[in-house]
Amino acid sequence: DVKVTQSSRYLVKRTGEKVFLECVQDMDHENMFWYRQDPGLGLRLIYFSYDVKMKEKGDIPEGYSVSREKKERFSLILESASTNQTSMYLCASSANTEAFFGQGTRLTVV
Amino acid sequence: GENVEQHPSTLSVQEGDSAVIKCTYSDSASNYFPWYKQELGKRPQLIIDIRSNVGEKKDQRIAVTLNKTAKHFSLHITETQPEDSAVYFCAASHRGGGADGLTFGKGTHLIIQP
Fold first, then answer.
1. Partner-chain contact A96 B98, CB within 8 Å
2. Count of CB atoms within 10 A of residue A35's CB?
3. What CA–CA distance (Å, rounded) separates A33 from A93?
4. Which of A4, A88, B60, B100 has the fewest beta carbons under 10 Å from its own?
């Protein structure tokens, strides 16, 4: 079974803090993704990576950055958290078809 | 970039009836169209997918149809059961669902009435 694990299920951070969301997959997948999920907006792609040290912007990259130093780990970074970044964040990985999702991190910025 | 529209946003059907969810996409280069089911408080999981060289695919009570000319695809669930209640997302990709990521629709909340 593919396992995609996100480091935290719930996070509460203050405005202006630097926030790290971590994701690890155990299936040697090349591709990894970060999405945010908001009611009525579905899942929106923030960043993706198709190889170590490679990253590409998705549809809503503003306010975010990513890091992929190892194949199995993909980190999402909020340089200076803002209240409009309160959301559910989902990490996913894939080989070439099915995307496998982590359990999600619900981030609240106060 | 790709844009995926999904309708309806909420669908309520009687148990045992059929449910149909429809999506349209904008990028004619898209060639992979998966459907994900997300139960309350859980992660999205793939339930069926179709590639652009196929017009229809069926898996037990679930089927997906694709019309490339019209750029739309649909999910059909027959003989609905309570466990079908969930949010369903369609998606499209023009690199086979891998490297470029998926563009998702906004989701359909399917409610199965007993």
1. yes
2. 29
3. 6
4. B60
